[in-house]
């Protein structure tokens, strides 16, 4: 049987990677409300701008 050994920092590295991936997915999913808050513009305006870019 093979023995799998982990270095001391490997678990923490994977945890940080997982947090970054989950954060990126959440930011993408909630991009319209986040952009509206950051720019101070209405969500409808942000959504229209995103939809226009998708149409090109």
TrEMBL record:
<protein>
    <submittedName>
        <fullName>Uncharacterized protein</fullName>
    </submittedName>
</protein>
<keyword id="KW-0472">Membrane</keyword>
<keyword id="KW-0812">Transmembrane</keyword>
<feature type="transmembrane region" description="Helical">
    <location>
        <begin position="12"/>
        <end position="30"/>
    </location>
</feature>
<keyword id="KW-1133">Transmembrane helix</keyword>
